[in-house]
Automatic annotation (TrEMBL):
The gene is lysA. It is an enzyme of class 4 (lyase). HAMAP family: LysA. Residues 26-266 form the Orn/DAP/Arg decarboxylase 2 N-terminal domain. This is Diaminopimelate decarboxylase. The keyword Amino-acid biosynthesis applies. Its cofactor is pyridoxal 5'-phosphate. It comes from the Bacteria. Substrate binds at R298, Y302, E329, Y356. Pyridoxal 5'-phosphate binds at G218, Y356.
C-alpha cells in the first residue's frame, strides 16, 4: 500500500483505524507453503486469535488454510466464514467440559492438553478421534508471556506424563489422531525448534493411528528495517527432510501442520492515528494521538516496538518525539524516537499492527474501538465499523437507583 492510499483511508473512514493489506497476507501464506513444498501433505491452520475478523478468515479459507481456534466463539466465527469443520482445530486451555461437548457437536478437530479432561473425554466420546497437546519442556519465545513450552507453563501435557496418557488411551479405547506442540512466539533459534520437534517425533511413535503432527508456530517477523526474523526457508528445508524420514519409518504419510498467526498478518497491518496535540515539556516533545493502549496494548504489555511513520509529512526533517496516547494512564508507544516533524492533525502509521492489536482492543476509559479496513485488489473495503455510543450501552441493564 502507498502512503497516499493510507491517507485516503484515514480521510474516508476516520481515525484511529486498522488497515490490512491482503496482498501481504497472501504472500506470507505462499512463503510458508513454498518453504515446505517437499512435504507431501501440508496443512496450515491460521491462528484466529491474532486477527479474528470474519473477512480475514474468509480470505485465508480461500487460500486453502484451515483455522487454529482457542475458544468456541472462534470456532463459530470460522464456521461463519465458511471454513469446513474438519479444517478447524480447537485447542482450548482450562475451559469447562461443556465447551468441548459443543465442539464435538460442531464436528471440529479437538486438541486436548489436560490428563483429567482426556480421561473424561475418552469415557464419554471414545469414538471421536482427538489430538494431544504435549509440553516438550523447551523454552522458546521472545517474552515470558508468549513462551508456552517450558516446564512451568500451564499449556500441554508434560512429556513425562506420557505413560499416563497411554494408560488412559488403553483404558478408554479412544483414538489419538494427532500430536501437537507449541513452544512460544518470536522463535529465532531454529535448532531449538528442531530439538522440540524431535521430542514430538519420539512421542508420536507411541500412537499407531496418527493422521497428523502439529508443530504449532511462533515464527518471528521483522519489526523494523534489518530486524532479525525466523528463517522459515531454512526451517522448511531441515524439518521437511526430517518429517519425511519420520513418515517413512512410521509407515504412513502423515500431514505436517502449522498454526501461523502473527507470521501471516502482522506485517500486513497498519494502525493509523491522528495527532491531537504536540506538547513541549521541559525535557520532552510529546506527540499525543487520538488513541491509546486501549487500541494498541502490545508495547505496554510485551514491550513490543512498532515502527512509527508520519505519513502526512514523511520527508520533513526528523526530530525526536515521544508518541503517547490519550488514556488516563501511561501509554507510551515510542520514547524519544526520530520521526519526521509532526504537526497537529498529522496521521501517524504504526507498522506490524495486524496481529494481536484489534483482537486485544478494549473500551477502557469508555472509548470506542476503531474500524477495520481490508485493502484488497487496490480497493479499501470496510470490514468493521467504528463503534459508537450505542455500542457502549448495548448490553448494559439500567436499574432504578
Amino acid at each position: 500500500m502507498k502512503q497516499t492510499d493510507l491517507l485516503q483511508v484515514a480521510s474516508e473512514f476516520g481515525s484511529p483505524i486498522y488497515v490490512y493489506d491482503s496482498e501481504k497476507m497472501i504472500s506470507q501464506y505462499k512463503r510458508l507453503t513454498d518453504a515446505f513444498k517437499k512435504v507431501k501433505h501440508l496443512r496450515l491452520h491460521y491462528a484466529v486469535k491474532a486477527l479474528s475478523n470474519v473477512s480475514v478468515l474468509r480470505l485465508f479459507n480461500s487460500l486453502g488454510s484451515g483455522l487454529d481456534t482457542v475458544s468456541i466463539q472462534e470456532v463459530k466465527l470460522g464456521l461463519k466464514a465458511g471454513v469446513s469443520p474438519e479444517n478447524i482445530i480447537f485447542t482450548p486451555n482450562g475451559v469447562s467440559f461443556t465447551e468441548l461437548e459443543e465442539a464435538v457437536q460442531l464436528g471440529v478437530q479437538i486438541n486436548i492438553d489436560n490428563l483429567m479432561i482426556l480421561e473424561q473425554f475418552g469415557h464419554q466420546y471414545p469414538k471421536v478421534p482427538v489430538c494431544i497437546r504435549i509440553n516438550p519442556h523447551v523454552m522458546a519465545g521472545g517474552n515470558t508471556n508468549i513462551s508456552v513450552g517450558h516446564i512451568d507453563s500451564k499449556f500441554g501435557i508434560s512429556i513425562h506424563q506420557l505413560p499416563h496418557v497411554l494408560r488412559i488411551v488403553e483404558n478408554t479405547k479412544m483414538t489419538i489422531n494427532g500430536v501437537h506442540m507449541h513452544t512460544g512466539s518470536d522463535i529465532l533459534d531454529i535448532e531449538v525448534f528442531l530439538h522440540a520437534a524431535e521430542i514430538l517425533f519420539e512421542t508420536a511413535k507411541s500412537f499407531k493411528n496418527l493422521e497428523f503432527l502439529d508443530f504449532g508456530s511462533g515464527f518471528k517477523v521483522p519489526y523494523h528495517e534489518n530486524d532479525i526474523e525466523t528463517d522459515v526457508e531454512q526451517l522448511g528445508q531441515k524439518l521437511s527432510k526430517r518429517f519425511n524420514q519420520f513418515c517413512k519409518d512410521y509407515g504412513k504419510d502423515l500431514t505436517l501442520a502449522f498454526e501461523p498467526g502473527k507470521f501471516l498478518v502482522s506485517e500486513a497491518g497498519l494502525f493509523l492515528a491522528k495527532v491531537n496535540v504536540v506538547k513541549q515539556t521541559t525535557s520532552t516533545v510529546f506527540a499525543q494521538i487520538d488513541s491509546g493502549f486501549n487500541h494498541l496494548i502490545r508495547p505496554m504489555l510485551y514491550g513490543s516496538k512498532h515502527e512509527i511513520i508520519n505519513i502526512s509529512h514523511p520527508r520533513k526533517q526528523k526530530r525526536f518525539y515521544s508518541v503517547v496516547g490519550y488514556i488516563c494512564e501511561t501509554d507510551t508507544f515510542a520514547n524519544n524516537k526520530r520521526i519526521s516533524e509532526i504537526s497537529e492533525g498529522d496521521i501517524l502509521a504504526f507498522k506490524n499492527a495486524g496481529a494481536y492489536c484489534y483482537s486485544m482492543a478494549s473500551n477502557y476509559n469508555s472509548r470506542f474501538r476503531p474500524a477495520e479496513v481490508l485493502w484488497h485488489n487496490n480497493e479499501a473495503k470496510l470490514i468493521r465499523k467504528h463503534e459508537n455510543f450505542d455500542d457502549l450501552l448495548r448490553n448494559q441493564v439500567e436499574v432504578a437507583i
